């Protein structure tokens, strides 16, 4: 399964190579915008995109980005809770 994480394009770092800086959950990372390139490339600044392994795969609107980020945070919290439950269950099993 592939997971695209919303990131906002904040600058064009290398127009010739179609590379841009994106901010993803507070972390800046250089990504390829070749899949979403348009003329002028600078028109991507401020846009939200789904980013997967260093590639901006699709432009999305800010509302969709916010909903996706919330869902990903919620999934992380669920995963933490499931991990804690598993540890508790393992501890109870060892106590028997």
Overview of the structural elements:
The protein is α+β, with helices and mostly antiparallel strands. The protein contains 1 helix and 5 strands, in the order βββββα. The chain has a single domain, classed as Roll (SH3 type barrels). The chain has a 5-stranded antiparallel sheet. The chain is elongated, with a radius of gyration of 18 Å. The protein starts with a strand and ends with a helix. The mean pLDDT is 88.
Radius of gyration: 18 Å
CATH architecture tag: Roll
Q: How much beta, percentage-wise?
A: 25-35%
Number of helices: 1
Q: Could you say which structural class the secondary elements and strand pairing correspond to?
A: alpha+beta
Give the gist of this structure:
The protein has 96 residues and is of the alpha+beta class. The protein has one helix at residues 62-95, and strands at 5-14, 19-24, 27-32, 48-52, 55-60. The chain has a five-stranded antiparallel beta sheet with strand order 3-2-1-4-5.
Describe the secondary-structure layout:
Elements: E1 5-14, E2 19-24, E3 27-32, E4 48-52, E5 55-60, H1 62-95
Antiparallel strand pairs: 1-2, 1-4, 2-3, 4-5
What keywords describe this structure?
single chain, 96 residues, alpha+beta, SH3 type barrels, five-stranded antiparallel beta sheet, 1 helix, 34% strand
């Amino acid at each position: 399964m592939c997971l695209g994480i919303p990131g906002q394009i904040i600058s064009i770092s290398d127009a010739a190579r179609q590379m841009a800086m994106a901010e993803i959950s507070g972390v800046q990372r250089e990504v390829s915008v070749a899949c979403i390139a348009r003329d002028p490339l600078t028109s991507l600044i401020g846009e939200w995109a789904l980013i997967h392994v260093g590639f901006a795969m699709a432009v999305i609107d800010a509302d969709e980005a916010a909903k996706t980020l919330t869902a990903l945070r919620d999934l992380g919290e669920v995963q933490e809770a499931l991990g804690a439950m598993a540890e508790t269950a393992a501890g109870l099993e060892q106590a028997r």
